[in-house]
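=== RUN LOG ===
request id: a7f3
mode: sequence -> structure
chains: 1
length: 136
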Amino acid sequence: MTSVKILLADDDKEDRFIMADAFDQIGLGDAIHFEEDGEKLIEYLNGSYSVEPLPSLIVLDLNMPRMNGTQTLKALKRDFRYKDIPIIIFSTSVNSIEMKECMENGAVSYITKPVTYNDCIETAKNFYRYSEKELS
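=== RESULT ===
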C-alpha cells in the first residue's frame, strides 16, 4: 500500500469522487486522501502529524466553506511543520487577482480544474508526478 502522498481539500463531493476515480484508474488510489475543506485538512494534518509521514503535496480548492483555499494556504505556510510542503491551488476560477494572491502567499502552482474525464486522469498523473518529484 502506498502512503498518502497527496492531500486534497475540495468541498464539492462530485469533484472529489471524480478525482478519486481518476487516481484509481491510474492505479494510485492509495496515494491520495481527501478532506471537505481547509479546516478539516488542517485537523487531519494535526491529527496525523506524528503518526504517518506528511504528504509531499497539498492541493486546495479555492472556494470552500469554513476555510477557503487562500486562508488554508496562509495558515499552512505560517506553520513551521507544514510550510515546506508544496501547495497547488485547484479551482474553476480563472481570476488573475486570486491567482496572483495565491502565488504571492506561497502556492507553487494554480491549476484550473479539468473539464473532461481524460483531463482529470492527466491531472491526477501530473499531481502524482509532482509529489514524486518533491520526494527526490
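=== NOTES ===
The helical segments are 13-25, 38-48, 69-78, 96-104, 117-135.
The chain has a mean pLDDT of 90.
=== END ===
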